[in-house]
Structure prediction request, 312 residues.
Amino acid sequence: MKFGIYTGSRAGDTCAGPADPARIAPLVDELSDGRPFVIREYVRWCGGNTDLEREIGATGDLDHLTMPDDWYVTGGRELDLVLSYLPPVADLDGWLAFIDRALDRYGHLIRYLQVTLEANFPIPHIDGSSPGVIAALTRGLPHARGRVRDGVQVGFSLAEPAEWLGGDDDFWKNLNAFPYADFAAHVDYVGLGLYPDGFSPHDNVYGATVHAVDHLRRRLAEAHFPAGRPIHIAEAGSPSGAHRTIDGQVSSLTALIDASAAAGATQFELFALSDADSASDSPLGTFGLCTGDYVPKPAYETYRSRIRSHSH
Prediction:
């Protein structure tokens, strides 16, 4: 597998302080150790909802990312840029115009482009809750495909299996209605957001991970995707606080990576390098390999060693 990480300091609306590029750079260098390494970033379109922009920290998304531009294209790093669709009302024209603006700003940096974030997951601050999300995905991704430079892979991400989320049959019914040439033909990879014990306890993270990847493959086959289309673990993680512990985070991360490799995922991107809020009682606060002050937890060395053993 190829590995990567989200380096920002925010998880949804949880953010105790700004990211520190000077602390981030050496930690990422130590993880990658000269190997190709994917850096995940998010750019969010809120359709003019300025209150939401402020709440989730999206106001400067088209001005800058976490790190300086040239950092993303040096040292073997590869930028995976997520374009997230969060308007209060359906607005396909506005979304396509936003895609154009985002690519005008960051298109020269990207190696992977993800169009929409977990469109099957209807919870606040995730694209599946947004009006018109099916059109945003099925029209937005082919539109972006026509705009990116050669060598950029374009895909989308989905959340964990339906039985974990309360059901996503309507999403798949809509997606299955599109012939191969209209949608699946434009997709290079499909990402999976994977948090088996992220928000509640789970006693078999390895088995849940394998099941999630297999479940996604079955669903993709129904939606006219050919066998062998790459699956990326686009997000994955486990907190060290809330219902978990420091040691529990290590064991969960080990199971997540080993099971993803066994299930045939080609890429694994961890959420996140640092905590959004180490003092928070919410799981969202403590997904980091490091504290909010960039002090490595035991999970940091676990990830570093797993990168060495599973990279190819």
